[in-house]
Amino acid sequence: MTTLFDLTGKVALITGSTKGIGEAIAHRMAEHGAKVVISSRKADVCEKVAGDINAARGAKVAVPIPANINSKEQLQMLVDETRKQLGKIDILVCNAAINPAYGPMSKIDDSAFDKILGANIKSNHWLAQMVLPDMIEKKDGAIIIVSSIGGYRGSPVIGTYCISKAADLQLARNLAVENGPNNIRVNCIAPGLVKTDFAKALWDTPEGEKRASAGTPLRRLGEPDDIAGAAVFLASKAGSWMTGQSIIVDGGTLS
């Protein structure tokens, strides 16, 4: 039976999908019928996650295609190989991001600043440019950028990361305005602190987790699967009249 959340026949390209939020999104989109591309830098972990999804679904619905988001050439290869193996892309999830700097912005060097903005903004812009022709041709498509509640507030320790995530919010708005006439929807998800390896420094002790969750109305940190449902919603018919927006999924932190 089809539902508002049915993704049967859709091809979803998901970056940073070998762990954490990206992996959870890949599992849930496959569960709802999509064929998914698993991508990160390392081939072996891509193959493992794709194998796990295929085993869970009892069919080959996931394919591993490693790529480095900092390389425009590798991203083009990722898109081309996706088309070759699965067909034209219906859903793009820009989840991969980096944050190699921790501390005040007055101390960050130019190379780290450029690297964060390049990986967290420019790669999303590149990927959107690469997949939009397929979506324009079909007059249908969904692009989802995983931003952060850091895009809504300042930070004394991850300021450049927050700047990049604020830029992603505007990137989604602009792409939504430009591509809405072709029935292409572009939205963000802005998670709060989720228990992933990426954010491990902020929660990886009992004291740290207690401190980090104390200001959250639900009194807990997020799990990767808490974010996956929002991605399925935005990619499916259920989200067909939503574009240029950001869904904040943070346990109430910004309340």
Structure characterization notes:
The protein is an alpha/beta fold and 255 residues long. It has a single domain (11-249), classed as NAD(P)-binding Rossmann-like Domain (Rossmann fold, 3-Layer(aba) Sandwich), CATH 3.40.50. 44% of the residues lie in helices and 14% in strands. The chain is built from 7 helices and 7 strands, in the order E-H-E-H-E-H-E-H-E-H-E-H-H-E. The protein has helices at residues 20-31, 43-57, 72-86, 110-138, 159-179, 206-213, 224-235, and strands spanning 11-15, 35-39, 62-64, 91-94, 141-146, 184-191, 246-249. A 7-stranded parallel sheet has the order 3-2-1-4-5-6-7, sandwiched between helices. The longest helix has 29 residues, at 110-138. The model has no long low-confidence stretch (mean pLDDT 94).
Strand fraction band?
5-15%
Mean pLDDT: 94
Under the CATH scheme, which class?
Alpha Beta
The second-level CATH architecture is 3-Layer(aba) Sandwich
**SS field, number of helical segments:** 7
Residue windows where pLDDT falls under 50 for at least 5 positions? none
> Compute the gyration radius: what is it?
17 Å
Secondary-structure-based class equals alpha/beta
Largest sheet: 7 strands, parallel
Coarse shape: globular
Q: What gap, in angstroms, lies between the N and C termini?
A: 37 Å
Describe the secondary-structure layout:
Blueprint: E1 11-15, H1 20-31, E2 35-39, H2 43-57, E3 62-64, H3 72-86, E4 91-94, H4 110-138, E5 141-146, H5 159-179, E6 184-191, H6 206-213, H7 224-235, E7 246-249
Parallel strand pairs: 1-2, 1-4, 2-3, 4-5, 5-6, 6-7
Helix pairs in contact: 1-7, 3-4, 4-5
